[in-house]
Amino acid sequence: MSRLKAILFDIDDTLFSTTEFAARARRNAVRAMIQGGINLPEDQVYRELKEVIAEFSSNYEHHYDKLLMRLPPEALGAHNPALVVAAGVVAYHDTKFEELEPFDDVAPLLQALRSAGIVTGIVTHGWTTKQAEKLIRLQLMSLLTPSAIFISEQVGISKPNPKLYLTALRQLGLEAKQVMYVGDNLVNDIAPPQGLGMRTTWSRRAAHPGPNIDQFHPDHVVDNFRELGQILRTEYDIPLHAEYATED
Question: What is the pTM of this model?
């Protein structure tokens, strides 16, 4: 087996629970908007917000404006809609400022890999500004190789197009067999890099596997990054410290 020289990671639902965080932030936004003047039950407003997000995508910039347009006119009464929207925006961003953090075992593994001389990087799908902001807020940049950050919008290629991963390999000057990719999505994160000959690890603790799960065959499946560290230490001979020794 070729020695691994780089391990590249997805961000969302791999380095932190994007789904859980987004739900919490949106709930806080809805509560703030109700305090700001919406006279409807929280669950009703939250359901409507989820529909807006599903219809316009999570990257749409005017979720709360669309939300107010869909609510009965009497729900807002005499309150200024701009202030109600602002209340939602502030609450969402306050949650992001205060609560966005990686899984507890992410930083220790990245640090151990860097100490072992492994390139640690990112291949992520999304808008450049949003994905870059996540990495900064997660406080992981000091543990990543600066030249190994690939964001789909910035590259001009989206997942699951394997060319996104191929671009990363070319820019890093590495062969596919020298690189592992770790992600939560079987369609986007496992099938494309595996088709190029990269090693793949499915991180399933926050994953949404979807249908036809049996048609995917990642090289490894882990529920946390301690398990991943043990695999890297025992199967790939990466000199990680004793924390990642195989447990009896």
Answer: 0.89
